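Quick bug: plant cystathionine gamma-synthase output formatted oddly.
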Amino acid sequence: MAVANSCMMMGAQIAGQARAPPLFECRADTSGSAKHERPDSGSSPPTGFLKRGACFGASAPLILRFPPNFVRQLSIKARRNCSNIGVAQVAAASVTNIPVSSAPANAGEPFVLTCNNSVQADGALVEDFVSPDGTLAVHSGEKTGRAIVTDAIATPIVQTSTYTFKNTAELIAFQEGRHISYEYGRYGNPTTQVAEEKISALERAETTLLLASGMCATTTMMLALLPAGGHIITTTDCYRRTRQFIQTVLPKMGIKATVIDPADIDSLELALEENNVSLFFSESPTNPYLRCIDIELVSKICHRKGVLVCIDCTFATPVNQKALALGADIVLHSVTKYIAGHNDVLAGSLSGSNKIIGAVRALHNVLGGVLSPNAAYLILRGIKTLHLRVQQQNSTALRIARTLEAHPKVSRVHYPGLESHPEHHIAKRQMSGFGGVVSFEIVGDLQATSRFIDSLKIPYIAPSLGGCESLVEQPTIISYWDQSSEERARLGIKDNLVRFSCGVEAFDDIESDVLQALEAV
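Here's what came back:
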């Protein structure tokens, strides 16, 4: 899909945040001779200098800024002596200025998600699937708009905890919105901002907030958006720690929860009628049974009551599903999984409007679940191959699911790409791929299932998912071993349940390994 030359730059200063687009005009001259003009502290800000809280719109000039203490490091000697804390790293400061080619020309029109290029009528993945997000994944936030200080392709790491001001007048100008900069590491970082802009581009979001983990994103979002004495609606099948937070922490603030089946629209409407609900939250697909929410329908129903909708799309990825385009207000990711993609970083993200994410960011600045610049760098590296990895994982998972469904030693397979899945019709409509995780039930008990897992040679026995390596787990043991068998049964966790996260290994090798391991059952 061709990428247009024009661009829309997203992101804003929200609620006192210091996550700022850097200052100084970007120049094509690589000699460093261009003059950098700053507004006088006593004058009104010229065009392009944004006040705190102002939206960084498409009409604003592309501006970048060097922190004052880096200006004197422009000499060749200084740059040679700077390792990963030198002036070259300031080049990380950037805004997303690669457009969303598939976004509507009229910003008021809804984005229509189509999956005709990747899903056939029978739900099968087309083998030559090419993601329209590939160019965005590689270049958004980075290629254009970065300060021309270094010839490095990779966005450098700005490894600093704080930022300086050259004098008190400049600091006052910053506080009054006449001078845009960063202030303190908890409020923003240039490397992190590039990663946020890249995720925003993939999600078609106004802004994104990166946090220290997926659970940090979940808990901070709920604490920010749920009032004391409020009410949340969530679904039965979900990540255990999310359920634990909703059931044990939120009640301390008088917040009650209604838990419904992912497909039970009648119960959703009843809960909205009977309670003063502030937030609907669900994963889609869910963990571990991969149930799918009808995001468009649920969003319409909730919005009629003024209820915000947050969808955890970790299992789907931004490549397979655009929750915001389907009507959700917030999309959440455990960036640890597919987006980072290499099992080497913890992170979480929240994407949505400036207003909603701004409210979460304000609390985040207080709670302090900050992502390190080095982790942001790893996310940038990983996300550039997201569309390629997901394409391989989609294909492998669908083929493995079909193989397992036909095997006599497997009683049931949970995968939204199969017609036997209860929400297959929803997944076909709102997803362009069905994800890389397959859950299935072995014919046998806890011990028989453990024999199958122990016989596998390629996947690691480990929690998590979405990385290059295949991972396998028995949820009963790895996540719920501290629960009684009765409690596990109440939560729907069966002793013979297996969750298999497909990596990017060759499909033939994975299939052969799975079939041989089933012989041990």
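Actually, after a second look the formatting is fine. Residues 133-384 form a domain with the Aspartate Aminotransferase; domain 2 fold (CATH 3.40.640.10). Closing.
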